[in-house]
Amino acid sequence: MNSFQSRFQYYSKRKFFRFGVPFLLLMVGGSFGLKQFAQLRYTFSKKGTLTVEEAEKHGLLMKKPEEVTLEGEYEKVKGLDIDNWENIRGPRPWEEGTTPQAKAGH
After folding, report:
1. Residue 90: inside a domain
2. Is the Cβ–Cβ distance between 69 and 59 less than 8 Å?
3. 11 vs 22, 23, 29, CA distance in Å?
4. Within a domain: residue 105?
């Protein structure tokens, strides 16, 4: 028992065993820990895109990519009057779905 205690005192005074060994253990152990956390990201992430059939199953109506074009959307936006508009605040959760303007009589 005495030899173990003397060895422990000998090594505990060395800088490598006081600072180097814990540092190396932290680096090596941390890399294994980060590997496990990074693996969770790829295990539970959804891969792929939403298909039309899946969207319809959830109640969403998707247009075909050929139906939506940049030029068509530009024509829709070009017809809007962006100079005359009114800022209307949406309802707060405690206002039961009615707009404040409707309550005030606007």
Report:
1. no
2. no
3. 13, 16, 22
4. no
| Secondary structure string (H, E, C) spanning the chain | CHHHHHHHHHHHCCHHHHHHHHHHHHHHHHHHHHHHHHHHHHHHCCCCCCCHHHHHHCCCCCCCCCCCCHHHHHHHHHCCCCCCCCCCCCCCHHHCCCCHHHHHCC
Radius of gyration of the chain (CA): 33
The answer to whether 12 touches 18, Cβ cutoff 8 Å, is yes
Residue 48 lies in a domain: yes
Q: State the pLDDT at residue 23.
A: 93
Residue position matching structure tokens 């959760």: 93
Distance CA(71)–CA(91), nearest Å, equals 34
* Assigned token pair, 12: 């505990």
pLDDT digits (tens, 9 = 90+) for 35-58: 988 888 888 776 677 788 888 888
- C-beta neighbour count of 91 within 10 angstroms: 13
Domain hosting 49: range is 3-79
